Amino acid sequence: MSTVATDRTPLKSRAAKATDVSTTIADSHCAHCGMRLGSTPVVKDDRGFCCNSCATAFGALSDSGLDEEFYSLQVLPEKPANTASDASKNLQLKELDSPQFIEEHTRPDNAGRSVDLFVDGMHCAACVWLIERLPFEMEGIAVARVDLPRARLSLTFDPAQVKLSKVAEWLAKFGYTVRPMRGEGGRPTDAERKLLLRMGVAWALAGNVMLVTFALYSGLQAEGSGLATAARWISLTLSIPAVFYGGAPFFRRAWASMRSAIKAHDFRRLHMDMPIALGILVGFLHSMWATLSGNGEVWFDSITVLIAALLTARWLQLRSRRLAGEASDRLLALVPSMVRRVRADGQIEVVRVDDIDAGDLVEVPAGEVVPVDGVIAEGESRLNNAVITGESRPEAVVSGGRVVAGATNLSSPLRVRVEAAGEATRVGKLLAWVRNAEEHKAPVVLLADRIGGYFVLGVLALAALTAALWISIDPTVAAQHVVALLVITCPCALGMATPLAMSVAAGRAARHGLFIKSDEATQQLTTIDTVILDKTGTLTEGQMTLVEWTGSTDALELLAALESQSNHPIAEALVRSVGPTENIGVVGIEAVAGAGIRGFVDGREVVVGRPDWVAVVTGVSTDSVQPDIERVALLGYTPVVAAVDRQIVGVAAIGDRLRDDAAQLVRALELSGKEVHILSGDHPEAVAVVAERLGLVGERARGGVSPEEKRAAIEHLQEEGSSVLMVGDGVNDAVALQAADVGVAVGGGSTASLVAADVFMTRPGVEPVSELLHGSEAVMRTIRVTLGVSLLYNLIGASAAMAGLVTPLVAAVAMPVSSLLVVAMAILQPSFRDQQPQSLKHQ
Amino acid sequence: MNILYALVPLALLLAGLGVLAFRWAVRDGQFDDVETPAIRMLLDDETDQSSTP
Q: What CATH class is the domain A354-424?
């Protein structure tokens, strides 16, 4: 018994062995970037590459001896690049040239027009190099810039000289798929740039004010010389832009909240910006008065640092929101935007989906995604509904059957009578719900914001108290003690604690393939008590593969050679799993629908198919392998028997393989006291088999659940007081991911699930879910500890200062120590660091 | 200590220049994508977009 692996290593050795390399590797993957080679592979040193740049990169790496490390670090995509048929590509490309598209999605530029496009399939430096060569390769393109992390290409082109579809075709030659980008496209908005600028300026001002104030604290003040006056005036001058430019957003929002609170006579409407604005203003006015009148204390440093720290927190928040928004835009490309309408005279015209009305007839060639909801008017085919229902097995449809937008037509052309198009389709409604829910999600109110404002007001009150206290005791030292109090209670440690710990953890998690979209999600993750898992694509790998082969390996090659002549899903699974076969002649093929296929491979008769059919065709009993067949069926896979020259050679188990780490995850979750459920759109029997293997019984595993029912089930659990974590991958999970307290999309999931999820994982498998839970707990613990430490520090500091035990100089030294402590704690936090990637360990 | 009357404004001037440089960098979009340029550095000079007309 041998389980077939689909990794690259055997592929390479097989390619190296073969004499005719180009035919062997035509269907395999690039030795450098791992993408499908396609029809024009580049062969060098017996290795196949998808393009010249990959071949060059491979050569350069091995020449310099870096190849071993490079390929061990390289993360290959779990699924090969999209292999949509030429037909569907052409349809997409047509849209790129339509005047409406040019009008709506390109901007005038001094060198023509500029446009942003999504480019799928870019993963390395070679891709950047190749794509940025566009201006040298094609007339009429002035600039091509790649944004690798966001899979985006910005082009400046002259529409008169070059068509965008030509550009897309050129890129398609190298395996990159271009998709038009709609909406804002996740460009860093002006708001984000402005905030970044504001933040930078605020920090520059705060830093300089601090330096000047340090001179005052360390004795300059006491001398009362001209220098001291100059230092105060400099601080004042620097603070004016910090307060009125840097702090403007706080004042604006505080003012707005005040007005709405007064109008509604409801003081709960007062925003968190209110105390912040008040604190900044009071502190600034007081310090200004002190500077002008020449007596009294200044605390410009505290005010400016507070503004800068709060702006930093806002900027981090805005940035993570934009990254989430970016995924939304990719979602819009999910359903085709161009459709083939069949006119009354039988001609087919390509129109935009917006121009389609109910009752129109549209054609859907094989390989394309169905663009509308409707009823099949003509033709029969198999549809893959995985996007909508999560069911992995293709579904046969005939004339009169219903189809929904988002399904992929697998085998033959269909004509569909339109019932709903665009936003009115089922998938359109689901996506709209996801998008709206995203917009309505409460913005994260950072803990720092909440505490920051009250903190400043509290400090001011304490300062007044200290002043009053010491004036009555000993007026000569009153000023000194007030200064010490204000210095030692500098809010920078407090203000930075939460955002700093969060962003350090998020960055570290991202390096481990866990992308957490909001700080709120990190916080929510620690309250989870119920975990709901999707089956197809989450617990399982989401596509049919050869799970197990009981029999000789040589026979498997014959099988794959025969099956490569068929486009049946089971045949495709077999070929995909075994890999490309050597150049073996196959003749006399005879396929029987629903039963199997027979033919002569290399002169030997091979029969593959349903056990009973194989027995009838070959006249040989399958009793010898009956235990294997039963075992395979029991595991929930489809048993396929193979016979060569009228001898049974083995049993293949074809199915959607359960991920290796699924059982581990379920066990870990249950051990930590969480309730685990499976909700799947797949057949209840298929779900039951998986659930049984994972040890989940009864009501905890439900199959045949529609997306809407998933959402209802989650809401029901939430009403019962549970905090729900949903793990899923498909469009059918998107609504559930959104409804759950925290939604996690697993690697290779659909874009819709990425949009709806609060967290998405680029690492294959589901095991990272437990790392995510542990990590977020560690982050929250770190934050609580840091906040506690800085509050404690401030409390002790304030008490000591009020009691007159601290001189301003000691306070000035103690202040940065507290900030450094908070920074160190954030950086040294234990979250997301248990499993360092191997490559980092030996550095 | 009177030298400070000259040095502090000088320091502030330098800081001001830094802020101006930062302002240019933000407006120019230098912070929009901080990953790809690191890769672009590895590429040959001839593909440098700034040298194209």
A: mainly beta
